[in-house]
Amino acid sequence: MVKVITTGKPYSCLVTDGVHQLQADTILEYGGGNAGFRPHDLLAAALGTCQAISVRMYASNHGIPVRSVTVEVEIDRTTQDKTVFRKIISIEGDISEDERKNLYNVATTCPVQQTLSQQLEFVIA
Asked: Using one digit for the tens of pLDDT, what is the confidence trace for 28-45?
């Protein structure tokens, strides 16, 4: 479980899982201190890291020589009833086009994308 604690600065929050921590905030124009990741940046980071890790794991397990994976994620919320996650996935390595296409497919099946693709429900305990 992740815990989010306000820090006393207007909107700054400490985010921790009990072992790791990071700081979240909002931008100056919204009254924040711009002292950390914005909440939507963290959502984009969750998707991007999951995809990068999934590609690296698959490549490692299947002997595909991937040197690095870069995932850029932009969240488009300009349409009221729809959110679009735009991604650029760059895979570096001496790999064939078939391997590259396969790795792109692996990225789209990562657990975070699967979670975000399902109907969501929010419950306050």
From this structure: 999 999 999 999 999 999
